[in-house]
Fold this sequence. Notes:
Blueprint: E1 9-12, H1 14-22, H2 33-42, E2 46-51, H3 54-62, H4 66-76, E3 82-86, H5 99-111, E4 114-119, H6 130-139, E5 142-148, H7 157-169, E6 174-179, H8 186-199, E7 204-208, H9 215-224, E8 229-232, H10 246-253, H11 264-279, H12 295-298, H13 302-314, H14 321-334, H15 344-358, H16 367-373, H17 386-393, H18 411-418, H19 425-433, H20 435-444, E9 467-469, E10 480-487, E11 490-497, E12 507-508, E13 523-525, E14 528-532, E15 537-542, E16 549-550, E17 555-561, E18 564-569, E19 574-579, E20 586-587, E21 592-596
Parallel strand pairs: 1-2, 1-8, 2-3, 3-4, 4-5, 5-6, 6-7, 7-8
Antiparallel strand pairs: 9-10, 10-11, 11-12, 13-14, 14-21, 15-17, 15-20, 16-19, 17-18, 19-21
Helix pairs in contact: 1-13, 2-11, 5-6, 7-8, 8-9, 13-15, 14-15, 18-19, 19-20
Amino acid sequence: MNTSSNPLKITEVALRDAHQSLLATRMKTEDMLPIAEKLDAVGFFSLEAWGGATFDTCIRFLNEDPWERARQLKKKIPNTPLQMLLRGQNCVGYRHYADDIVERFVKQSYEVGIEIFRIFDALNDLRNIEVAIKTAKKCGGTVEGCISYTVSPLHNIDLYIQMARELVDMGSDILCIKDMAGLLTPQMTGPLIRELKKAINIPIHLHTHSTTGLAGMNIQCAIEEGLDMVDTAISSLSMGTSHFPTECVVAALQGTPRDTGLDLNALEEISDYFEEVRKHYAQFESNFIGVDINILKSQIPGGMISNMENQLREQNALDKMDEVLEEVPRVRKDLGYPPLVTPTSQIVGSQATLNVLTGERYKIITKETRECVLGKYGKLPGEIDPELLEKVSKDQKVIDCRPADLLVPEWDTVVEEAGEAAKTDEDRLTYAMFPKVALKFFETRGKPLPETESAPAPTPAAAPASAQAAPAPAPAAGGSAVYTVTVNGRPYSVQVGTGGGIPAAAQPATPAPAAPAAAPAPSSNGSNKSVVSPLPGSVFALKCKVGDQVNEGDTVMVLESMKMETEVHTPFSGTVNSILVQEGASVQTGDELVLIS
């Protein structure tokens, strides 16, 4: 047991991973700034405030500039280092970017106030983080090289020690154990930290989620073996799929050689603030707010669970959640046991969802699943299922080099494509990450969002529950009208009698039950045959035009769903007679997309 006077350092994750895990990353910058100075005064080792899904969510849902968020936070937090989560060669996106984009992204992140870069690769292919590490070091940033912790027949302490030594050799200042799904157990945590401490001479930082209920015990085991830093979440944004409460760790260590030195009274004030903020994001709350030991089997990280719920809810198939959770480990095994963290968690989770909803495994294979199998995300830890490999590869070769070695420099192309819509290099980097979403954001930036797009912002002080009624619709049958009333961000349907009768009790507004959507069959439309949407999503790209001759199996369209791209193939040959949707349009399962004669 470590008994030296060595205060445990705390990284507070309220500004990033806590609300990413609990509230679908929807917290607005305006809800962070009023408490920023008090966060700065606590004495945290760092504040995780950027990266991960925050970048995507800012431009996709919140109509906020993520670069400006970092800049504003740093202005309010001058004393505590701001920390970000960087996906190596993926930056904050879902594909590999050329080295020139990665270098520019890291440099610009440092310029807007990011000082600590937690850099990981979803496959633990360390070739994919070399450029990011070198660039962050060159800028003057602190690098936390990551091990993405997972459990499989292939992963063990010896492998993690080997990775840790490689990360030290690459220039990491700190080693992070990234337990994104909460898979660590006390039996594993103690020996892992103990052996890593023997093998390397840089500080070790533990990132673990509370999903399985083991986080507190794991943190204690790690502390006893000399852990240097730990991620925690302020109590009002803790537990569930989030992290162990900051206050609990601080209280537990008071008066010991590992005393954090943090003030519980100051933390209580911060917790009270976020307790009120959280109420206004109730509509984004995950149903996973307690403990789910089954995650030890599915291995789904905290930030993915709420997204998967939303995917199934859009399909009116939330009752299929258990089936999807059972399918996830099967897909993971087929793909060679990748750790489940962005983007592999999305790839595996989305593919598992499609397998369940279509009723046939790999009837629809996302573009990202195909590219993962083909080595375009890096080297998978184990062997790929032979049938899946044959189905995906066909005449394509599986690559074994660093994926970015096959990419040509992208910056000049980005500048040209973004054009005048991008006003600055920050805009151009935003476009590089998410081209179509960025262009829409550039158009709406600075304009108020429709209320349905994001939760209403609370006031800095404690605010009472707010209620807002939608405009009254026409009276329903029987002399009543149905209103939608929003209370603290959660919609309720209220039926009000127009003739003095007693209104029905308020009930949470939920869609009418519907059978889960399976992949629909093509339909006839007069003399034409219809290619229909196999799933809900948006039209990412058109791959045909009116008058084109197409053959059975040709790709006619690409849909974006669950942040993944899915090709739509025509089930018959003929001439494209009509295209019924435009790029960017939202579609549902069974919607007609293309007519072929």
